[in-house]
Each structure stands twice: as C-alpha cells, then as structure tokens.
Design goal:
This protein is of the alpha+beta class. 43% of the residues lie in helices and 22% in strands. The chain is built from twelve helices and eight strands. Strands 1, 2, 3, 4, 5, 6, 7 and 8 form an eight-stranded antiparallel sheet that branches. α3 (117-129) packs antiparallel against α4 (134-146). The longest helix has 18 residues, at 201-218. It starts with a strand and ends with a helix.
Length: 268
Amino acid sequence: MILDHFQTKDLNHIAEHLFHLSFTENEIPFESTVLPSGCMSITHIYGKNQTAIYNETKFPLKGTIITGQFYKSYQFQVNSSGTSCGISFHPTAIYKLTELDVSNLTEKHLPLEAASKFLFNILNPIFTNYKGDINTLCKTLEESISALPLTYNDTINEIDEVINIINIKEGMLSTYELLDHVSFSQKTLETQFKKIIGLTPGKYIRLYRFLKLMKKYETKKIDLKDLIYMYNYYDQSHFIKDFKHFMNQNPKDYFKIEHPFINEYLNI
C-alpha cells in the first residue's frame, strides 16, 4: 500500500491536498479502519472491489465518488489491486463550489454524478483521461478546480472564521466560545454550520480534538498519557469513551497492532 500526497499551491484556499493510493496483488485483501479527517473528498477509483462499511451499511467504491463528513470511523476494504486518486477539500469548499446542503452527504460515499453533475462533468473526464499520468492529472485537476467560481457571503465568511478558530485551538473550546466570533445566534450557528460543513459545531469540535491527538500520537511526538491531559480530557475514562466512539474499539485492542494506513494519512 502506497499513499502519496501532493501539495496544491494554487488551491490552498480550497483544498488540503491531492492524494494517490495504490495496492498491489500481494497486499490483497486489505482492510483498515478510517478515522474521519473533518474534510470532504472527491476520489476516482481506478481499481475494482473496494468497499466502505459504516454501521453495517456497505458503500461500493467505484468510479468518481464524493465522501461526506463522518463522525465515526468506518472500515475500508480492498479485494483487487488498483489505484485511486482524489482531492481532500477544506471544510467549507464543497459548499462554496456547489451551494449544496452538505449535511445531506454526511456519513455517505456517493457517486459524484448523483450529488453534483456540475462537478462530475468537470472532474470525471480529467480523472479518466489522465489515468496513469499522476503528474499531469494533478496539474490538470489543480488548474480546473482553481478556475471554478466560489460562493462567498457573510455567513460563509463567519463559518470560515469559526473553523480557523477551532483549528488554532485544536478543538479545545466549547460551542459557546464560538458565539463571540459570529454575528448570529447559537441556533443559527448550529443550522448554518451543519449546512455548510456537514456536522454540528459540537460534533466537529469533538472530532477535531480527537483527530489532533491521534496525529500527535502517530507521529510519536508525545506520550499518549500526556496527550490525554494536553487535550483537556478529564481523565483516562473520558478519553476511552471518546476513543470507543470514534474508533469503534477500545484503545487497548487498537494499540495491540500496527495501523499503517491510518499512520500514513495522519502524517500528511
């Protein structure tokens, strides 16, 4: 399994990175837990027999798909060799590109054509025309996406500011603290945040804090016990509760084995 990522100089305002994932015959069958990243993505799967499983719902992964926000991890299975390539977007980017209520995409992997024919008609030909030429593919994706019109208004700007604050604080704040940075009520914040991001502010904050903790752990920067308190968990039992929620297993079982796929994408 090889996961490469490519920086997006011309897309810094809208995308986190481009990525390329490949599996060889000797790595099949492959299965891994996927921890949500707090971002949505669009991916083209060139291989066959790839599946995502969430709460016993199976999503066949083929062609060009869009992945909405997830609040818990899901299982990723690959049963044939092949590659995929995609774009991980900033939290507000899909809304800016489509004006879709992205909460309708939450906890789903869907054909992009079903979610947005506009984006499908632009991106799918690029994915298919440049199969096997990753450098040209990435360059063409970057040029095409950077040329697309984006929706901006006061509400989107304030949600962007809220996301920036959550990032700076690494998820260590409450929803009430966000109200100091917006001009609308808590109810409106909840409604607009979910519409534009796909999760409520409280869920996004909780996910982001856990994600940052796991990134620091996987990069071996700080001991787990220190991280638990650094990220404002009351005690170990509080952390274990969050861990079980996001990873669908307890920490003891999880840390018994290596998780190369999670380690790879958490180190991006």
